[in-house]
């Protein structure tokens, strides 16, 4: 009891240096937890990008390159899939659904995806969640566009706005097709995936912005496609093609698409058709299973994960060393105080307990404050992380793993506190008694 | 090993002390010294003659290089470090030259501190109070008041007290729980003559009340007449 009281009063008496130590620990705990949480959530966000899609088919390239270009909008697909091949593959037995996608255009730096209306029904992310509309609905005409949540909020667009989609990637495309404005008819809910940063237009409209329907396409930029059955034709287009039948209106007859997403009735079909596609003679194609490739990709990024872990480890180490320094420095100043305690009857083990109690208390409080800071930082930064890094941060109770980390820090702090405590134990009585103030 | 003598408080027998083993000549060399229970001793000598060294030996803080020290018929040499700690906490009240108060505790907390580490001191302290519900605080208040620190200062910051007031707190801490032996190491060196005498008289009062033996160390020989026996450390030491 008396030791607790002494520890408390003594800490209070040295509150400036104790507070500094406490904050060093708090900040490092905060950093560790934040880095940990971002690491875990980045991984989750990453593997949540696509789900429910059994195969992605594109021109023959690397597995990861195909995944990056079709799902993450990173890099280019150098080649496309011919419309004939698409139709052939889509007609295979066991195919539940197939969605053609066409990439390569942009609007103010945001990717433009040409696809069919099926995209909004079959595309899944995270735990098989479908896309949902925050406002509006899927496109029904060639001149309509559906925005990802980020695009809408970042560019300040609202339903009914007219926007112009340019040809090619990047902000400064050479031709802007001012004569082809699109009307925003839908805005999707946030998904924490690249979908948020994508503008979705009908596949056939890709052709339109390239200035002609069913033209021969360059490999990179131009893709035209057909999808499914869409019911409307366009009213507002100043273009040449208003006259398709309803079926083909939104899909058109592109010569090439970038890739297609496929779902199957059974995993058996997935494997079989994947093999068939990879051995397809007429065109060099590649079929990947996105979940498998995502894992491979993350393994490639594992070094980043390790570096993050290393960082947090070093941060903790530094703060614990800082605590040790402070404790030892304090101990020198406290020789007299400890000697006084010895002179009024405190035993060496009681001094030992006193010092370890103080460091344990400092570490404990540091960890608590650190957790508080961590939640504060996460609350403040979660929307930024979501919009800028695509990491959906999950603000939840501390996980078992995070609690273990804190436990390890506390244990380390306690063990480090034993060093000055041991020194205090061996401070002899005469040592302190002879110090004059 | 001398005979067990019931009235003997302190008994030194051929005691020498060297700070370092290889020192040519001992800092302290006392062939014999005997102090009886209840005596108020004035131990004097010029600076550097070994007063503090002797007190450290009496308090069991240091052990002699040779010879025996017996306090309350206990041979300090035969006690382990821990046993000496316990023995000191239970039987010796020490007033330090620089008071050695903990700055972050109140006067009352400083006074009761020793009782927190020694059960027998605590019990004796509780027996001292005449109050219906004895508590350490009440005993501390009684001692502080008796030693001349008025109650308005009892819960103040120790650091804000004057030297004279701090000294009373230090004295009260030594007296609480009525230890058999009170050692005072130049506690009055910072006081003026008038205050010195009145403070020493208060010490005597408390020592009588607690039946404590008082060993008062000073280089100021003007205080000598106040005590019933004076010992010169110079003449005590064997001529070398």
Task: Give a written overview of the molecule.
The complex is a heterodimer of chains A (437) and B (240). Chain A has 437 residues and is an alpha+beta fold. Helices cover 51% and strands 17% of the residues of chain A. In chain A, the strands form three sheets. In chain A, strands 1, 3, 4, 7, 8, 9, 10, 11, 13 and 14 form a ten-stranded mixed beta sheet that branches. Chain A is elongated. Chain B has 240 residues and is an alpha/beta fold. Chain B has one domain (37-64, 80-236): Rossmann fold, CATH 3.40.50.300. Chain B is 36% helix and 21% strand. Chain B has helices at 51-58, 81-91, 107-117, 119-128, 136-146, 163-175, 193-210, 233-236; strands at residues 8-17, 28-36, 40-44, 66-71, 74-75, 92-95, 181-185, 213-218, 229-232. In chain B, strand 4 and strand 5 (74-75) form a beta hairpin. Chain B is globular, with a radius of gyration of 18 Å. The two termini of chain B are 24 Å apart.
Number of domains of chain B: 1
Instruction: Let me know the CATH homologous superfamily of chain B.
Output: P-loop containing nucleotide triphosphate hydrolases
Average pLDDT, all residues of chain A? 81
Shape of chain B: globular
Determine Rg of chain B (CA atoms, Å). 18 Å
Distance between the termini of chain A: 29 Å
Say how many strands of chain B there are. Answer: 9
Low-confidence stretches of chain B: none
Q: What is the CATH topology descriptor of chain B?
A: Rossmann fold
From the N-terminal CA to the C-terminal CA of chain B, the straight-line distance is 24 Å
Mean pLDDT of chain B: 86
Structural class of chain B: alpha/beta
Cross-sheet strand order for the largest sheet of chain B: 6-7-8-3-9
Give the largest chain-chain interface (CB within 8 Å).
A-B, 24 and 28 residues
The CATH class designation of chain B is Alpha Beta
Helix fraction of chain B by DSSP (H/I, runs of at least 4): 25-40%
What is the CATH architecture assignment of chain B? Answer: 3-Layer(aba) Sandwich
Helical run tally of chain A: 15
Multimerization status: heterodimer
Shape of chain A: elongated
